[in-house]
Amino acid sequence: MTALLEARGVGFAYRGRPDALVDVSFAVEPGENLGIVGESGAGKSTLLRLLLGLARPSSGELFTDGVPFEARSRSALRAHRRFAQAVFQDPYSSLDPRQSVERIIAEPLRSLRLERSRSAIQTRVAGVLESVGLPADAANRFPHEFSGGQRQRIAIARAIVPTPRLLLADEPVSALDVSTRVRIIDLLAELGTGADPLTVVVVSHNLSVVAALCERMLVLENGRVVEQGRTSAVLAAPQHPYTRRLLASVPRLPA
Amino acid sequence: MSDPILRVDALGVRSPGGALLRDVSFQLEAGHRLGLIGESGSGKSLTALAIMGLLPEGLTAHGGIRLGGVQVVGSRERDMVGLRGRVASVVFQEPLTALDPLMRLGRQLAEPIQRYRSLPRAELRAAVTDALLEVGLDDADRIARSYPHEVSGGQRQRVAIAMALATRPRLLIADEPTTALDVTVQAGILDLLDRVIAERGMSLLFISHDLAVVSRVADRVVLLRHGEVVDRGSLSDLIARPQHPYTRELVAGARELDSAIDHPRRLP
Asked: Among A2, A117, B212, B247, which residue's Cβ finds the most Cβ atoms within 10 Å?
């Protein structure tokens, strides 16, 4: 089986700074969500930038569907956007307040030139609104009229409208209240089961979010992968001292 | 029976736009720990500000807040100055709000120490070192010489806690003190609070949205929603047998995330 996404020995350094990523390798198989776990400064955001094509690795290679991915040209980036979309932490800042929800969600269809006719765009927006559990009339409203959880649903709708194969989710529930968090996690989990199944790569500091959503996980510390494997195996028997410390630090509810 | 260190009695807070807190009542006995739990917009931070007499301009409190036996609502700023620090101190989510970016941490910490007791220079230096050691900063001399941006977020929060403790308050109000921190750093700060509160025999009002975090440091909780108290009691009871629909929803959400650690998503 060809990996949907693969990193082979990826390294990255910001100019004049110590290496942000060192020899990072992993593979994401279709239908197997991957959680990338780490604390501040671990290199999560840098890795995400590389996966989005916003920066290129200083060493090593990325592959999408078995093909080397290099964000050198506009057409390569456009093809990558078709392949992978992203959802970010803060649904307040990631949505343009002056645009209607329909315009926001339709943006990838326009910029990727997937759909031109107004009626076709409306149909697709209505379709993804339903997929993310928002009412059809949300299309004509504006972001400020929605709660944090609803805004994250809008951001997810925008990400899935071009039917990408991969969804890169950067701390997708960290800005949300606990009760809302669970519903957004459920929604992200459901995306892997529809007619156009999506594979989700979640970048998060939160082990429970990764545990709830990802069959596989990897742990980043100081830019290096210190442990990776099936989430159930890593959490049941963490091998690396840092993974053990991370797991022991998670505040747990009394039984 | 001794007076509670804090008694909040039918507290309300109004803005020109309407009521933000309604009929909030609870009390905290000396030496006890209470968790104030709520999601964003519940009014939990506003309650803390009202207790310290620090409500932003335009907001007015009514009802009663007795802090160390003194009525806070309606009291003059001059009278509040005597309560802040001596009766109660606050630690906020973001330690940078409490720290002056342009002043070395040792000098900043020296200020509240000196407010509490005037010390000659050499003794003041020793007191600063002791205060840093008490909050687990073993590298006290280097921290004292550093500016806030030169130390980590967890170290900054430890300094902020040391500053809050320096005036020997009887009550510490901690408003989401670990929310901005990494989980491994959070664990250390929670251990620290748990230890110093016990060692000093202080009271703790711990404000958080996170049930699991609160359970590490407090045994009784008050649950706020939309500016009103919806539930209260012992934390273990609330978690084991949530009665109110909102408590049930909150506990179920927290439980679902918590249990994912033990039962992660598996490959088919």
From this structure: B247
Query: Each residue of B89-131: pLDDT tens digit?
Result: 999 988 888 899 999 999 999 999 998 888 999 999 999 999 9
Q: What is the predicted ipTM?
A: 0.85
The token pair that represents A105 in the structure block: 């969600």
The mean per-residue pLDDT over the stretch A20-25 comes to: 97
Pick the CATH number of B6-94+172-259 from 3.20.20.70, 3.40.50.300, 3.40.190.10, 3.40.50.1820: 3.40.50.300
Q: Domains of chain A: which residue ranges?
A: 5-249
Are A16 and A58 a contacting pair, CB within 8 Å? Answer: no
> Does the CB of B93 have a partner CB in chain A at under 8 Å?
no
- Cβ distance A215 to B265 less than 8 Å, yes or no, reads yes
Distance CA(A218)–CA(A237), nearest Å, equals 14
Q: Give B122: exposed, middle or buried? Use CB within 10 Å, 0-12, 13-18, 19+.
A: exposed
**Shortest alpha-carbon distance between residue A233 and chain B (Å):** 9
Min Cα–Cα distance to chain B from A2, Å? 17
Smallest Cβ–Cβ distance between B210 and the set A182, A215, A251 belongs to A251
Q: Which tokens sit at A197? A: 């199944």
Question: Higher model confidence: residue B35 or residue A179?
Answer: B35
**What gap in Å lies between CA A138 and CA A150, rounded to an integer?**
10
Instruction: Identify the sign of the CA torsion B210, B216, B221, B227.
Output: negative
Per-residue pLDDT tens over the stretch A53-74 = 999 999 999 999 999 998 788 8
B40 neighbourhood in chain A, CB within 8 Å: 148, 177
Q: Considering the entire predicted model, what is its pTM? A: 0.89
Instruction: With CA atoms as reference, report the closest residue to A251 among B241, B216, B143, B78.
Output: B216
Task: Report the C-alpha dihedral over residues A92, A98, A99, A101, rounded to 10 degrees.
Answer: 40
| Whole-number Cα distances in Å, B51 to A172, B67, B72, B230 | 34, 7, 7, 20
Percent of chain A with pLDDT over 70: 100
Residues from chain B that touch A206, judged by Cβ atoms under 8 A, are 183
Query: What are the tens digits of pLDDT across the range A229-246?
Result: 999 999 999 999 999 999
Taking all residues of chain A, what is their mean pLDDT, rounded to a whole number? 93
